[in-house]
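Project standup — Tuesday

K.O.: blocked on the structure for the chain from last sprint. Re-posting the sequence here as requested.
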Amino acid sequence: MDTKKYRKIPFQNNEYKQYTNKKKFIITSLLILTILAFFWAITAGATSLKPREVILAIFGLGNTKSVSIIRNIRMPRVVLGMLAGAGLSMAGCIMQNNLKNPLASPSTLGISHAAAFGANIAIILLGAGTVVSTGLGEIQIYNPHIVTICAMFFSIISTLLIILLSKLSHFSTQSIILAGAALSSLFSAGTMIIQYFSKDTTKIAAVVFWTFGDLGRASWNEILIMGILILLSMAYFIYHRWDYNALDAGDEIAKSLGVDVEKIRLGGMFIASIITAVTVSFLGIIGFIGLICPQITKKLIGSNNKYLIPASAIMGSLILLISDTLARIVISPQILPVGAVTSFLGAPLFLYFLIKGDINQ
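H.V.: unblocked you, prediction finished:
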């Protein structure tokens, strides 16, 4: 009897247990950091509140002013930021897996700009929004459903064009990104033309403010829609986690394992584009979350999608929460657009990954 063979089994089991425990530890640590960032974000603001007042106000207790500030202003902003960060990061993670390209993300593939183009059509041509004279330049979207539908329509078109081009022309991974850059330029040009010929300056101002990317537009209605979308999308992605692992090994291997490659890829890209479209239509363009967060997460936890997908979602929430809090406190009482902060944070990280060669792997 080969006793060595049987001695290996407990060792392998123990090794696998250590492997899974390490990943669970990383996910738990990210969750704890996100909870801490949540409390930091909700206490930061022009009105100083003690932690006890904040906790009481979350549950509707304490004085009326604190409850109003926390539940009507800060909570919607923070919760929507967490949902948007989770959604964009998951979308980037799935796009990178489906296209087998670490540079793939809603912004690099032109999907964010396509959604912005759709929103420009809705706001300027269809009259779905304007700037309200409150002294703060507040944007009012009269019909958010039209904005969302238009943004979603063009983002899906952009996604389908990317898939079609890569399929028909057998594009390399680099060519797919270049095609995304071309589509991004095309939709940006369309946006500029719409704005150039518009005679309504308030609508142009609304679009410009809208494009910045800002969590200050959050309301509980948007949170409900985003929450349902993100939960359903995460359930779908986690359900297909083994299919995505098979895609990582290549199309031929995935097919040999019984994976319907075309269906899984199209479904993943379609859902990722819907997440992007809804996020952009509610909050404007928030760059780099979908590109950088999956990269950082993959460095920490590896490429097993069983752990990578939920960890990427948590990482997206964490980084967008930190970015938005910095946007509110750096030059307080002025508030920076969160899209500018994520770009400031994301660009150096992106260059770091490029220099190290991680992006090219």
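K.O.: great, moving the ticket to review. DSSP finds 14 helices and two strands in the chain. The chain has a mean pLDDT of 82.
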